[in-house]
Specification:
mainly alpha, 2 domains, 81% helix
Length: 226
């Protein structure tokens, strides 16, 4: 129970930190911590959230494969010119290596998410209660969750909101990458070169000993040898 209480306060801190103005703009009385814990951390919620992520990754994988196949078919059919150059430049997205990386990353993230959810649920509920909760989960309950109209509305709204947020932030990212970061970068290679030299030959990059100390060491060695 103490672990569950700790998780609830963790949720509160995340919500407060994510909202500008913190407590000044958040009415904690409107937050149903039990509902949040039940939806995200409980055994049933863990299975439902994992199923949702697996479904989302499967849809994304199918979409990437479809776009990659379409790009592979269409690109050779285009005549030489600016349109061909533009479409062909999308190889950084739809090339074979890039698609494989995207798909494998999605699978890796799904497996990692499942492992992390299991650890958190075991920590919050304990092994016995977690196993008992998992026993109550059925295939039908997961199907009902995934096909809920409320979930579809929620997922659609979040996708639109994330797109708007991304479009609002991307000009700032490009501005930083084009105008701010180049002015900061010249100081980096020197540090990297020093680190590389130290890793390849630690003694060459080490600071020299003071002359007096060097002479003292040599005198001690000479007396031992004599």
């Amino acid at each position: 129970m103490q672990a569950r209480g700790g998780m609830r306060w963790l949720v509160v801190l995340v919500v407060v930190a994510a909202v500008p103005g913190g407590l000044a703009t958040v009415d904690l009385g409107d937050i149903d911590l039990n509902a949040i814990v039940e939806r995200l951390i409980s055994p049933v919620g863990m299975v439902n959230q994992f199923a949702l992520q697996a479904e989302t990754n499967a849809i994304g994988t199918a979409g990437w494969l479809g776009l990659g196949l379409l790009w592979t078919i269409v690109t050779p059919l285009l005549p030489a010119g600016p349109i061909f150059d533009t479409v062909n430049s999308l190889s950084y997205l739809f090339g074979t290596q890039e698609l494989a990386l995207t798909i494998i990353r999605g699978i890796f993230n799904t497996v990692r998410d499942l492992a992390s959810r299991l650890v958190i649920t075991f920590f919050a509920y304990g092994l016995e209660q977690t196993m008992a909760g998992l026993a109550d989960v059925s295939v039908q309950s997961v199907k009902d969750f995934l096909n809920s109209t409320d979930l579809l509305y929620l997922v659609t709204g979040r996708a639109i909101a994330q797109f708007v947020i991304f479009m609002a932030v991307i000009p700032l990212l490009f501005g930083f990458a084009l105008y701010v970061y180049p002015a900061l970068r010249p100081a980096l290679p020197a540090r990297r070169s020093l680190l590389s030299a130290h890793l390849s030959d630690p003694w060459s990059a080490a600071p020299a000993l003071p002359p007096a100390l060097t002479e003292g060491v040599e005198a001690i060695v000479a007396s031992i040898v004599v």
